[in-house]
Write a structure and sequence with these properties.
protein biosynthesis; EF-Ts_dimer_sf; alpha+beta; 36% helix; translation elongation factor activity; Helicase, Ruva Protein, domain 3; Tetrahydropterin Synthase, Chain A; single chain
């Protein structure tokens, strides 16, 4: 910056006396173009929305992000209301296994924590997209973590109340499951809904090990399918936890239990039993076992128990869900 002091040299001319003042410049302020580019990179917002968000927040990046989140929720709710009555008979069943019993999962202590959800949309095309699959996977993850840990004697598949599930927290922020679904509706333009959800959250018990098996049919993404089958293989013996406890290499019994529980889940998907025991092939135990070379399921389990020197081996429960099938009362 320059300051000019003038003194009269003659009556017709002035001679400038120049003094310069120097100052250290502060940090360069980001241009509006740079802020828009950064905001779009963080949020994938359209150019016009990013510009408007920065205008509404006076150029504050964090404020602009919050404005966009609120705008997305409002837009999603409005678009969801428009498509709410449209039939949604396509979709997927999505599974999240946090802990699947001894030798599997995060804790690997014998507990079971799993979530299952059927998410519906209008078209098969949307059901096969990455965006819809990612939503379904995130929703089954929420379902797996909703129930409190159960110390009941037997593990069981507990249905969740869907309206309550819609109000559950989605992800790490303040968004709810309902808002997350509405945001995807705003992007895709189809009606999307949760039809049903179930979970197991079961604590391990002494001298007893339950191993979860699962199988997905007609699947485009891991842990998802048009049909999903689950089985609970119940094994009892003294100190069975140590027998199944993985070491540097998984124990043979843990491997075999995983293979058997998986085969039972395949059986559930393929033969669609209605009960565990009974007098005909509607019951799981009276069916020819797909993995048992013609032996009945009950006979195969009895032989497997003897081979592995266990006190008892049973199926504690199973579940089979198919997209858009009638739901029993």
């Amino acid at each position: 910056m320059s300051f000019f002091c003038y003194h009269r040299a003659t009556r017709s001319a002035f001679t400038p006396c120049i003094r310069r003042l120097y100052s250290t410049p502060g940090p360069a302020k980001k241009s509006n173009i740079q802020l828009i580019a950064e905001l779009r990179k963080l949020t994938d917002a359209p150019l016009t929305k990013a510009r408007l968000a920065l205008q509404e927040s006076n150029g504050d990046l964090e404020g602009a992000k919050k404005w966009l989140e609120a705008e997305l929720v409002a837009s999603g709710a409005a678009k969801a209301a428009k498509v709410e009555g449209r039939a949604a008979n396509q979709g997927v069943v999505s599974l999240t296994v946090v802990d699947g019993g001894y030798g599997h999962g995060h804790q690997r202590d014998g507990g079971i924590r799993v979530g299952l959800v059927e998410v519906n949309c209008e078209s098969d095309f949307v059901a096969r997209t990455d965006q819809f699959s990612q939503l379904a996977a995130a929703l089954s993850s929420v379902v797996a973590r909703v129930p409190a840990l159960s110390h009941s004697e037997d593990p069981s598949f507990e249905p969740l109340n869907v309206p309550e599930l819609l109000q559950a927290q989605y992800g790490d922020g303040s968004m709810t499951v309902k808002s997350a679904i509405q945001n995807i509706i705003a992007t895709i333009g189809e009606n999307i809904s949760i039809r049903r959800a179930a979970a197991i959250s079961w604590a391990p018990q002494p001298d007893r090990a339950v191993r979860l098996g699962w199988y997905t049919h007609n699947s485009n993404f891991p842990f998802q399918g048009q049909i999903v089958g689950l089985s609970l293989l119940d094994m009892r013996a003294q100190s069975i936890g140590k027998l199944l406890e993985p070491t540097t290499e998984d124990s043979p019994l843990s491997d075999k239990a995983g293979q058997l529980s998986h085969a039972l889940a395949q059986q559930v998907v393929g033969f669609n039993p209605v009960s565990i025991t009974g007098s005909d092939e509607a019951s799981l135990y009276e069916q020819g076992f797909m993995a048992g070379q013609g032996a009945l399921v009950k006979d195969y389990l009895a032989n497997w128990r003897e081979e592995n020197k266990l006190q008892s081996v049973d199926v504690a429960g199973f579940l089979r869900w198919k997209v858009s099938e009638p739901i029993p009362e």
